[in-house]
Fold these 2 entries.
Entry 1:
Amino acid sequence: GNSVTQMEGPVTLSEEAFLTINCTYTATGYPSLFWYVQYPGEGLQLLLKATKADDKGSNKGFEATYRKETTSFHLEKGSVQVSDSAVYFCALTGTQGGSEKLVFGKGTKLTVNP
Amino acid sequence: DTAVSQTPKYLVTQMGNDKSIKCEQNLGHDTMYWYKQDSKKFLKIMFSYNNKELIINETVPNRFSPKSPDKAHLNLHINSLELGDSAVYFCASSQDGQPQHFGDGTRLSIL
């Protein structure tokens, strides 16, 4: 079945450091890929997405490129801020019965210190 | 305007009780979902409904029963609550394969 593997956290960085959170996937067909973010005490928010190979999703300074050859979708940001502290989830869609079922990685907790 | 709203936000109850969580979306989406997030933050789909019809039913105990009275609502009823049911339950909705929108979650604690 479909699965997502993302780097184990927690990750602790200083403000303005470079961030990479690795994500690789296993899927049949051509899934869409997503990064969701969960701020403390809140629900999940879509951060960015990519729907086909070589697509780059970007939002709020975060980027991720859909790499079919390496089955990866790594999240990057050039300069993190304290407000980026959250749990980040990599996910893909696998279609079941016409409804898009999200399969999540285990989440990576990011803490950014001033 | 809240897009996907869940009630209650917190639910504390005793083992063996029956409880319900409600979800409503005002986005006009056709598909709604329930996900469970455990204490380690792992998220897994439980159910999905499309236009009031059950589409996805993962390996969930039959103590959990979703009900969709119309396409804007998907409620989750849980019978005979157990300690292992303690989690955060998220409702989500989507349309035509577009990204899912999530509610803020319901934190269920079983005493």
Entry 2:
Amino acid sequence: GNSVTQMEGPVTLSEEAFLTINCTYTATGYPSLFWYVQYPGEGLQLLLKATKADDKGSNKGFEATYRKETTSFHLEKGSVQVSDSAVYFCALSDGTNAGKSTFGDGTTLTVKP
Amino acid sequence: KAGVTQTPRYLIKTRGQQVTLSCSPISGHRSVSWYQQTPGQGLQFLFEYFSETQRNKGNFPGRFSGRQFSNSRSEMNVSTLELGDSALYLCASSLVELAASSGANVLTFGAGSRLTVL
């Protein structure tokens, strides 16, 4: 079956530091890959996505590249802000069913001023 | 454009009771999925409904059930509540596309219903 493995957290960084959250996946075929973010007291919201190998998803300064050879989709941001503090989830969808995605365990990011 | 609306946001029940949660998807979204989020298990897929039919079901006992109405609104029900059912229940809607490779399987989540079982 499909699976997603995220680096263990929590992650604590100072403002303006570089962020990397590792994500690897196991899936059959050619899944679409996603990063979702969850702020306290809220549901998940899409941060970025990539639908095929070598695609780069980007949004709000965050980037992730779909690497099929290493089955990875690492999240990066060059300079984090306090407002980026949240839980980040890597996820995949194999495209066979719209509503079923497989999520990683989530990584809690805390950014200190 | 209204987002995904879940009600109630918070509720407290006791063991043995049952609970019904409601979800109104984004207008035009025909797929509605439910997930259970707990600190220990993360996000676990419960089931998905499309055009009033359950298309997928996760590994949960039969106490967990759901349905979808003709207007795409969905409800999930948990009967004979157990302490371990305490969780944030998230509903997500999705715009179904024809091409599996279109990458359109983006889930739009509601804020969730936080259930506490005492």
